[in-house]
Design a protein that fits this description.
The chain has 389 residues and is an alpha/beta fold. It contains twelve helices and twelve strands. It has two domains: 142 residues, Rossmann fold (3-Layer(aba) Sandwich), CATH 3.40.50.2300; 193 residues, 3-Layer(aba) Sandwich (Rossmann fold).
């Protein structure tokens, strides 16, 4: 895969202030607003790509898409967008389900190689299997773009982990203070659902959530921050939060967030089942629209807009096959989604007439957080995934 950079965009799409580096039938990752190209434009991209890289089967492009887990709402939206774009472009997509498992992802990758696909879009969670999969793909000469969890030598498309996490954590702290008052919040507990198996890059998201929370509440006691391995699912998050609640005194505020909306919902459900009345959560993804609109304690989510992923991933695949010099990381521009504005992003969910906090992003704290990330030895090889600001 050629190099993939920070993408730029309008309010709900992709972002960056960097100069344009690719232009394939109007596609430029540094200026694309995240909307879907017309079928005519997509088919023109296909033709331009075929002039440089003919289809391996001699007829038409076949793209392999290995989804993280197909029945997760976020992943289902990503898949739907990819398939819609591929259909408009006249591209065949072979879909596989990685089932949140590295060994399964490796087996799926081997199937793609046997199938002799032209390009692979990889969404897999186990960082330890990334290098093995990419070694096989490189030997087969198949270019790859990885979604949200990077893989060695693959392009990257997905979450701006440091900023998304920091936004959510800071919003959670401010929302809790607005609901319960500073004194009560300082006696409360912050619960964070992590995903250690996916390595240091998604850890920038959950670490950013904690950093954002502490930037808004710098005196919050360290021993009142509880973390657990969510394994990326609502069910595991529910179980682990239920275990942690024994350490949280009755009658104090609980603030929760996690790697995604589903794990955040698990925190909320566990607290509700335990009869906790002061619970506030902020998600990450914005894909649990009904929950956000109907649950008063699910006050916001950092929007990643998974339904738009395909609008960039298919053009990225075609630009790569066309030999375009793409940047090596295209990051999403995130927006806070609340019950009051959710209908602007999800037409199937009605906006709610609710009061929303006057949110302030702690810019100075965020810049200090970025500096700390840049000096982290474990992130030395992925500086391109740490935004400039």
């Amino acid at each position: 895969m050629k190099k993939l950079l920070l993408s730029a965009a309008a309010a709900a799409a992709l972002m960056s202030a960097l100069p344009a580096q690719a232009d394939l039938m109007g596609y430029d990752p540094a200026a694309h607003d995240g909307s879907m190209f017309s079928a005519d434009d997509l088919m023109a991209m296909v033709q331009a790509a075929m002039e440089v890289t003919p289809p391996r089967n001699g007829e038409g492009y076949v793209i392999g898409f290995a989804n993280l887990q197909r029945d997760i709402p976020f992943c289902a939206l990503v898949e739907k967008g990819i398939l819609e774009n591929a259909e408009a472009a006249g591209i065949e997509v072979v879909v596989a389900d990685n089932r949140l498992d590295g060994a399964t992802a490796l087996a799926n990758a081997e199937t793609f190689i046997t199938r002799n696909v032209d390009f692979v879009i990889e969404f897999q969670t186990d960082a330890e299997f990334g290098a093995v999969i990419m070694n096989k793909m490189n030997q087969a000469g198949i270019p790859v773009v990885a979604i949200d969890i990077p893989m060695p030598e693959a392009g990257f498309f997905g979450v701006n982990n440091p900023r998304a996490g920091f936004m959510g954590g800071a919003y959670l702290a401010q929302a809790a203070v607005a609901r319960y008052g500073m004194e009560a919040v300082m006696n409360g507990y912050f619960i964070e659902g992590e995903l250690p198996q996916s390595g240091p890059i998604p850890a920038m998201r959950t670490g950013g959530q904690i950093a954002g929370f502490r930037a808004a509440l710098p005196d919050f006691p360290e021993d009142q921050i509880l973390t657990f391995d969510s394994k990326n699912t609502l069910e595991e998050s529910f179980t682990q939060t239920n275990n942690l609640l024994s350490r949280v005194p009755e009658g104090v505020p609980i603030m929760g967030t996690a790697i995604n909306d589903q794990a955040t919902t698990g925190i909320l459900r566990a607290a509700q089942q335990d009869g906790r009345e002061m619970i506030t959560v902020v998600g990450l993804g914005g894909d649990e629209g009904e929950t956000l609109a109907s649950e008063a304690d699910f006050v916001a989510a950092v929007g990643s807009f998974p339904e738009r992923y395909g609008n960039s991933l298919i053009p990225i695949a075609l630009a790569t096959l066309a030999g375009e010099d793409l940047p090596d990381a295209v990051l999403i521009n995130h927006t806070m989604v609340t019950p009051a504005n959710i209908c602007e992003f999800n037409a199937q969910v009605e906006c709610q007439d609710v009061e929303v906090i006057d949110y302030t992003f702690p810019e100075e704290g965020f810049l200090a957080h970025l500096e700390a990330l840049r000096s982290d030895p474990s992130l030395a090889d992925v500086q391109n995934l740490i935004p400039a600001h």
